[in-house]
Amino acid sequence: MTAEALPGAGDERVHRVRRYDPDRRQRLVDTALEVIAEHGVIGATHRAIARAADVPLGSTTYHFASIDELLATVFTVHAERVAQALEERMREAPDRQAALDALARHLSADLLGSDRTLVLAVELYVAAARRPALRVVTQDWMERSRRALELHFDPVTARELDALVEGLVLHQFLSTDPMTPEQVRHALVRITR
Amino acid sequence: MTAEALPGAGDERVHRVRRYDPDRRQRLVDTALEVIAEHGVIGATHRAIARAADVPLGSTTYHFASIDELLATVFTVHAERVAQALEERMREAPDRQAALDALARHLSADLLGSDRTLVLAVELYVAAARRPALRVVTQDWMERSRRALELHFDPVTARELDALVEGLVLHQFLSTDPMTPEQVRHALVRITR
DNA sequence: CAACGATGTGTACGCTTGTACGCATGATTG
DNA sequence: CAATCATGCGTACAAGCGTACACATCGTTG
């Protein structure tokens, strides 16, 4: 067959118009986080992300050499955001009591509030199990969280508190019958006293 | 070409000898758990499991109609085993104090002791996020755990304890610097008092 | 002891995936 | 203003996947 297209033929454009899109990379990161939240790391394929961000396949593979690099990048961004939120809350708290309140708020608002954040955290946990690059991300995140808590609590308490927070997140994630903010606060108070 | 094999030709056997293997299904379940522990749910393909169990591909697809059915089956078995271990420990504990010790042992031995169990738990968590069949498994598991703890603790404490255990498991899973059994016990005591 | 059905086995098919690659384009830079 | 190269874009390819299916075998059952 004569595959060559006739110049004047009325067939649809084969090449889309080239777009000027200076921060496409950043947009891809955010889109990837959306895709992971909705379909899991397993659903985060180059094609799915490209489709969601409305860019051609070649664009995702251009900006991220491999899927592993993509995951490392986007999870780093996510962890960074959550860690920063906690650090701010801890820095702003004048005393131990206020810190506890702020932590409870951090849990309810930043973590448990949106299913999105919740899912992303757990997806990161399991993805990190087998990808060294992601282990680094989770460890840095844990390190920063603990450090932030140590602004108001001794190291042992901070560590236990951090573990409890992790558990509450996971519990909320799995439970049909989520704990109320008061119940969450009650648990936090208990382990700090 | 004449694809028909000559009867007397010396070519190697196309069909392996048929094996009598009455509890192959059970063996497949255990093998699947091994594969998941090592390569994750993502690596738990029909082919990988068949290879690991040394059975042909057709055998896994015969015993498990789909991958989803397989996951539901094997995770149910796993959760059953861990839940039973906890229930036994709680039943055998004469009082609250002993129950705490038993819980600490459960954590150190059954959960944190083997990376295998640890990984399987987290894999289940994230897999359950998107598969209704697995949600049921995790919820039953949580339900049983809480029920077992309530043999010795009031419902509120049981719930908080359960969350803390979950968090300690996850923390251990991610941490390069795991908590000692004493530290674990310290955290447990703290939240129950 | 005969037939039947559960189980064992090999293979084919269509699909999606990651990745590589060639070419187009236009903002930047000298 | 010309050259360059980062970025945009489409496509091809091999590999691995789930699933379906036809046929072989033999313990079980009537």
UniProtKB/TrEMBL annotation, chains A, B:
Residue ranges the UniProt entry marks as DNA-binding: 45-64
Record domain HTH tetR-type: where: 22-82
Keywords attached to this entry: DNA-binding
Pfam family, one: TetR_N
Protein name (Swiss-Prot/TrEMBL): DNA-binding transcriptional regulator YbjK
GO MF annotations in UniProt: DNA-binding transcription factor activity; transcription cis-regulatory region binding
Xref: SUPFAM superfamilies: Homeodomain-like, Tetracyclin repressor-like, C-terminal domain
Keyword Nuclease: no
Superkingdom as given in the UniProt entry: Bacteria
